[in-house]
Specification:
Layout (H helix, E strand, L loop, with lengths): L5 E4 L13 H9 L5 E5 L11 E5 L10 H16 L3 E5 L2 H10 L5 E5 L12 H10 L1 E4 L2 H8 L9 E3 L19 E7 L8 H11 L7 E5 L12 H12 L2 E5 L3 H10 E6 L9 H8 L3 E4 L5 H5 L3 E3 L7 H10 L2 H15 L4 H17 L2
Parallel strand pairs: 1-2, 1-4, 2-3, 4-5, 5-6, 6-7, 8-9, 8-11, 9-10, 11-12, 12-13
Helix pairs in contact: 2-3, 6-11, 9-12
Length: about 375
């Protein structure tokens, strides 16, 4: 069987390297076939992943009055004429996908949504989402996002799919046994208010003095790159956190984040916003950590009954959950085992098979 020729288009500023990939770049790298071609913004400082092939796209300056995204789309359309792919996949940019569809009429396309479509240019209204479904297939990374996309849309819903985020289980570091794990509360992700990092700090200010054997760590930076400067929010939070003994690691490559999760006793994902999926929660479970998370967005869909839930804005909820787990090794052990078992549902091997099946299906359509 001749492999399909697939071109995947990243958001213009999405990283695609071992040192600087965001969540979308990591997922594309995990699920892509070796012969795929990935298009993304040119000028990345880090060396891209060795495979699949990455082609940097530089939007033409002319005409200067057009949106940068439109010039990006026009240059992509030029490259697509040369490549002539069987399938075009656009990640997380509804307006860009429609622009490319107009420039490449009749193309087989899939729009992958990693964020709430109702907050996205080109997909905010039911009419826009209905137009997307008339024009291309749409794949959401969670049932939660599929529900948000389908609100107010009554036709062509067979063209709406759920391809859940995935994790390469075979490539994870070996989890440390619960009794040997570092007594650490770990937050991993962008330290921004929507992610609840301030609630994490506030809870630790109250409980860390009573848990002298425990420590706390925040891994992440406002932007997924080394040397990312503090935002005003983080600059205000950092002194309070450091005064409480919470260590800021800053940005780390994804591999090192997973290694930290495989050693930490407890990972906390106290998101305030509606997580489109909850990849950090999945990674924590797959690495064997006991997970505390909120119920916002797709997090319950991912964590199921393998997590302890706490709302970051409910007084006392987060510190109570953290205290309860810190004082109960058998419970942490049970939760770690449940998390590893739960994570098997999201193995990248199965996700790759589902993606290949969808690609083949749309190629067979008239």
């Amino acid at each position: 069987m001749i492999p399909l020729k697939v071109v995947t288009i990243l958001p213009q500023r999405e990283g695609f390297s071992p040192q600087g990939a965001g969540a979308i770049g990591l997922l594309v790298h995990q699920l892509a076939d070796a012969q795929d071609i990935v298009l993304g913004g040119a000028g990345q400082e880090q060396i891209p992943f060795a495979a699949p092939r990455f082609v940097g796209v530089t939007p033409q300056f002319w005409p200067p009055w057009r949106r940068d995204e439109d010039r990006y789309a026009a240059e992509i359309a030029h490259l697509l004429r040369e490549i002539n792919p069987d399938v075009i996949e656009v990640h997380n940019r509804a307006r860009l996908a429609m622009r490319i569809a107009r420039l490449r009429p009749g193309s087989k396309m899939i729009l992958f949504l990693h964020n709430d479509p109702q907050t996205m240019r080109g997909a905010k209204t039911p009419a826009q989402r209905a137009q997307l479904l008339r024009t291309m297939q749409v794949a959401c990374v969670s049932q939660y996002l599929a529900g948000r996309f389908s609100e107010g849309v009554t036709r062509d819903l067979a063209r709406l799919h759920v391809l859940e985020n995935a994790i390469e289980l075979a490539a994870l570091p070996e989890p440390v046994a619960p009794e040997k794990r570092a007594q650490v509360f770990l937050f991993a992700g962008r330290p921004v208010q929507d992610k609840g990092v301030d609630a994490f700090v506030d809870a630790l200010i109250k409980i860390l003095p009573k848990l002298p054997q425990w420590s706390a760590e925040i891994i992440g930076a406002p932007w997924a790159e080394p040397g990312s400067p503090d935002t005003p929010f983080l600059a205000a939070l950092r002194p309070r956190a450091e005064a409480a003994g919470i260590h800021f690691t800053g940005y780390l490559p994804h591999r090192e984040v997973l290694s930290a999760m495989s050693r930490a006793a407890i990972v906390v994902v106290p998101s305030r916003w509606n997580e489109p999926f909850g990849l950090t929660a999945l990674e924590a479970m797959a690495c064997g950590a006991a997970l505390i998370c909120s119920k916002h967005g797709g997090l319950p869909e991912v964590a199921g009954d393998a997590a302890m839930y706490a709302d970051p804005d409910e007084p006392g909820a987060l510190e109570s959950a953290m205290w309860a787990l810190a004082e109960n090794l058998p419970r942490r052990e049970a939760m770690g085992e449940a998390g590893i078992e739960r994570s098997r549902k999201f193995d990248a091997q199965e996700a790759r098979a589902a993606l290949r099946a969808l690609r083949a299906e749309i190629c067979e359509m008239a």
